[in-house]
């Protein structure tokens, strides 16, 4: 912690050892539980091994009357003082065999249960740089090192159970097929019969690693009578909520689940090559896609999937209402829900580097107005 610890280094002069470690199903966060025999602390690390969240977990010897400054000066997690503890005498070492790690559905937070009871939680809003730790069962008063878990258990308890159920569903043999058919049926209702289907496109940017969640396919809905363009839609992003939405929206339900779509007259394989980049992006980068967001292409402009070799496209604009731009009437794609959350489709519109900078400076609404005035179509050709 800076306060527990920031960064990736081990505490100075510490004999701390890792007693348990676990990676999130998305591979973007890693939980590390360490002890030096006197104190156990837990750290949530990002893909660069930097600490993004942390909490004191337990004292293992009699608590001092006041905060042990010498341990902090040595870069070690402190013994919490007796005034902050459920049991000032200290508790026995953790039995790692009794621990259960439960990642939140979004992948940005984690809970650890001991013999079935919540021991600590490091939520997505834990931020050691701002002095916001995780929540520990044995803490009774707030400090920069741990908040009392009991004070928030009414919120965390149901969330932990919901997360357990989510991962249980994901592991069930028929779970993916049921989800997939619900989305494909919805697309059939609004867009007509399917063409090609590409499975697990996000793996192309996950170094080919099997099992890196989420699984996302792409469904093609070819042009038909009354529609001169093809629609390509992801299938799988909405199966899990996106990370960090709760940091920006009081009500996560309207924003947490999305699928992406692109309307195009380009060959489908070319247009669809945009999706490996974006399919796992929110969970890989621990962020979310909101209506109006602009996303910068990570490579050279000439390699951008939706352009030609001379294209100046360098990113995409995400629109929940593409009718704000020029073009034919867009299909609504509304009405699909999952676990009580509405699934929102965001349409991809390629933008230049200058347009990306303009949106960042003036806001996406200003960019949409400018594109509309220029006659930019939401259908890519």
Automatic annotation (TrEMBL):
This is Suppressor of fused domain protein. Coiled coil: none annotated. SUPFAM superfamilies: Suppressor of Fused, N-terminal domain. Residues 67-91 are annotated as: Disordered. InterPro entries: SUFU-like_domain (IPR020941), SUFU_N (IPR037181). It holds the Pfam family SUFU. Residues 223-380 form the Suppressor of fused-like domain. It comes from Actinomadura bangladeshensis.
């Amino acid at each position: 912690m800076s306060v527990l610890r920031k960064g990736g280094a081990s505490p100075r002069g510490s004999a701390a050892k890792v007693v348990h470690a676990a990676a999130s199903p998305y591979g973007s966060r890693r939980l590390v539980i360490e002890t030096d025999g006197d104190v156990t602390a837990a750290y949530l690390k990002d893909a660069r091994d930097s600490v993004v969240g942390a909490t004191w977990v337990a004292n293992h010897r009699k608590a001092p009357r006041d905060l042990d400054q010498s341990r902090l000066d040595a870069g070690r997690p402190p013994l919490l003082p007796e005034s902050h503890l459920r049991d000032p005498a200290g508790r026995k070492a953790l039995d790692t065999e009794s621990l259960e790690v439960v990642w939140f559905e979004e992948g940005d937070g984690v809970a650890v249960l001991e013999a079935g009871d919540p021991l600590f939680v490091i939520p997505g809003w834990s931020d050691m740089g701002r002095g916001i730790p995780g929540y520990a069962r044995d803490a009774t008063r707030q400090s920069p090192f741990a908040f009392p878990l009991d004070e928030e258990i009414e919120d965390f308890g149901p969330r932990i159970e919901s997360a357990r159920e989510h991962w249980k569903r994901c592991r069930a043999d028929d779970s993916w097929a049921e989800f997939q058919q619900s989305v494909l049926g919805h697309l059939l209702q609004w867009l007509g019969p399917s063409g090609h289907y590409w499975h697990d496109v996000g793996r192309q940017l996950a170094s080919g690693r099997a099992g890196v969640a989420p699984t996302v396919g792409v469904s093609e809905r070819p042009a038909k009578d009354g529609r001169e363009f093809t629609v390509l839609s992801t299938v799988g992003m909405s199966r899990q909520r996106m990370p960090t939405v709760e940091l920006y929206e009081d009500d996560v339900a309207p924003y947490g689940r999305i699928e992406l779509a692109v309307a195009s007259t380009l060959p489908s394989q070319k247009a669809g090559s945009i999706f490996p980049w974006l399919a796992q992006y929110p969970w890989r980068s621990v962020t979310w896609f909101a209506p109006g967001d602009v996303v910068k292409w990570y490579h050279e402009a000439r390699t951008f999937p939706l352009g030609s070799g001379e294209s100046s496209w360098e990113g995409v604009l995400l629109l929940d209402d593409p009718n704000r731009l020029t073009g034919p009437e867009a299909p609504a794609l509304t009405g699909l829900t999952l676990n009580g959350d509405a699934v929102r489709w965001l349409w991809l519109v390629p933008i230049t580097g200058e347009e990306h900078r303009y949106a960042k400076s003036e806001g996406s609404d200003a960019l949409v107005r400018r594109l509309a005035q220029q006659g930019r179509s939401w259908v890519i050709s």
